[in-house]
Amino acid sequence: MFPEHMRDRWERVAECAESLQEIRMRAGRPAAVMIDGRERFVDTGGNLTDMPPFRAASTTEDLDAVLKHLCQYSLYAFADEIRQGFLTIQGGHRVGLAGQVVLEDDHTIRNIKYIRYLNIRIAHEIKGVSDAFLPRLYDRAGRFHSTLLIAPPGCGKTTMLRDLVRNLSDGNAYGPGVNVSVVDERSEIAGSYLGMAQNDVGLRTDVLDGCPKREGMMMLIRAMAPQVLAVDELGGRDDLRALQTASGCGCKLLATLHGDSLEEVKKKNSVSDFISGSLFERYLVLTKKNGRCEVEGIYDGDGAYV
After folding, report:
1. Which residues contact 55 (CB under 8 A, 6 or more apart)?
2. What is the secondary structure of 129-156 as a DSSP string?
């Protein structure tokens, strides 16, 4: 991920690749990494420290060099992604960007320049993370129940969603493999690079990468005839209306939504009508306890524990 002249400094971080979660670089600030949920800092010699090191700030030249390298020295080719505030690179890793926004006359974002903040989020597949919960997501005839995953940020929603997509697509002990279509708006589920999924999302899965959810769902229903439609991070009523249309076309649904509990989500004005209705047959709720993420419970469409 780094230009050759910077790699010596990052060798020790690379040794922690299996537990590395993110790398943050901020102009004028020391580089920070998250390893197994613990924040560490990187000094000029590449050593990991608990305290911000003196005189180890990233420079604007450092950030420019990393960004150019990540874009294969063609920023223009990645202009659409930069405008959205992130890049997806080979391996499915995602790089968040922040800096000065350039607006069009209608206040849409045309570009981000003077990028002075990078957050490299390291993609980790955890195959099998959903296996234990599959029996409660199928009926006795082997049909998948439309399922909504609810969890606070950073609690593994996308990881669980990705593994469920794989299990649905490949088939498992509780149901046969089915055609799954994924609208991967921010390239986090399949981690596509040049259109090719970098993560294992199953052999019967089709991915529409970088497309807004509402438009993407309608495109996939018309073009790919999915049996299950999967999307990440529902944003509000428009996304839910599109899911409602998909459900009316005979698709089963698999989606995620930010929330601390089923009760909290039901109180949100933007989604309460849909959550209280018959759109989803199962709610899989994740929570964080003592710094660890776990499944709090699985509930049916009426909110009863299953």
Report:
1. 44
2. TTGGGGGGGB-TTSPBPPEEEEE-TTSS
Top-tier CATH class for 4-121: alpha beta
pLDDT tens digits along 221-258: 999 999 999 999 887 778 888 888 888 888 999 999 98
Tell me, yes or no, if the pTM score tops 0.85.
no
Domain with CATH 3.30.450 in the chain: 4-121
Report DSSP state, residue 290: T
- The CATH architecture to which 131-300 belongs is 3-Layer(aba) Sandwich (3.40)
CATH 3.40.50.300 in the chain, residue ranges = 131-300
Question: What distance in Å separates the CA atoms of residue 91 and residue 88, rounded to the nearest whole number?
Answer: 8
| Residue 248: exposure state from Cβ atoms within 10 A (0-12, 13-18, ≥19) | exposed
The confidence score (pLDDT) of residue 31 equals 96
| DSSP-derived pairing of the beta strands 147-151 and 252-258 | parallel
